[in-house]
Every structure is written in structure tokens, then in C-alpha cells.
Amino acid sequence: MTEEEDKIIKRFEARVRHLILLYHKQQEEVIALQNQVQLLTSELAELDIKYKHLKDAKRIEVKSTDLTDTKRRLSKLVREVDQCITMLSHEAEMPQI
């Protein structure tokens, strides 16, 4: 082999080694990204569960205005029942003709 061919072969070997090095770096990056995807997937699943719980809690949450309205309606119903009881007790006291 001539000196020129030796230079070409050595340059080729250096480029192949460099490509192998780049390949290994890419493989490491792929593994790191796969690990990150797994981590983010599990985090997403946890956040999805928390979101569902929050939606459920909001559905059953009693708002202060709802509570006030409910108390007001119950008070009104109690007054109506008291009036009915009073009317019935007065009718019972009246002599029947």
C-alpha cells in the first residue's frame, strides 16, 4: 500500500470511530428520553386522577349561596307547617255544627 492509501484508510477509520461515538451518544440520549417519557406519563396519570377527584369534589361542593337559599327555603317550609298546625288545632277547638 502506498502512503496515500494509508492516509485514506486512517481517515476512513477515524470517521468510522467518530460515527460509532456519535451513535453511542444518540443511543444514550434515546434512553434518557425514554426514561423522561415514562416519568412524564406516570406524572400525567397522577394529574389525571387528581383532576378527576377535583371535578368530583366540585360537583358535590355546597356553595355558600346554595346553603343560604336552602336554609331560607327550609325556614319557609317550617313556617308553613307551623301555620297548618295552628289552623288544624283551631279547627279542632271549634264546635262542629
Can you give a write-up of this model?
By secondary structure, this protein is mostly helical. It folds into 2 domains: 61 residues; 36 residues. The protein is built from 2 helices and no strands. The radius of gyration is 41 Å and the shape is rod-shaped. The mean pLDDT is 89.
Question: Keywords for this structure?
Answer:
97 residues, mainly alpha, 2 domains, 2 helices
Give a topology summary:
Layout: H1 3-60, H2 64-93
Short description:
This protein has 97 residues and is mostly helical. The chain folds into 2 domains: 1-61; 62-97.
Overall shape: rod-shaped
Structural class: mainly alpha
Number of contiguous helices: 2
Number of separate domains? 2
Q: List low-confidence stretches.
A: none
Helix content: over 70%
| Alpha carbon gyration radius | 41 Å
- The helix/strand order is HH
In terms of DSSP E residues, the strand content is: under 5%
Q: What is the makeup of the main sheet? A: none
**Kindly, what is the distance between the CA atoms of the first and last residues, rounded to a whole number of angstroms?**
140 Å
Per DSSP E runs of 2 or more residues, the count of β-strands stands at: 0
- What number is the mean pLDDT? 89
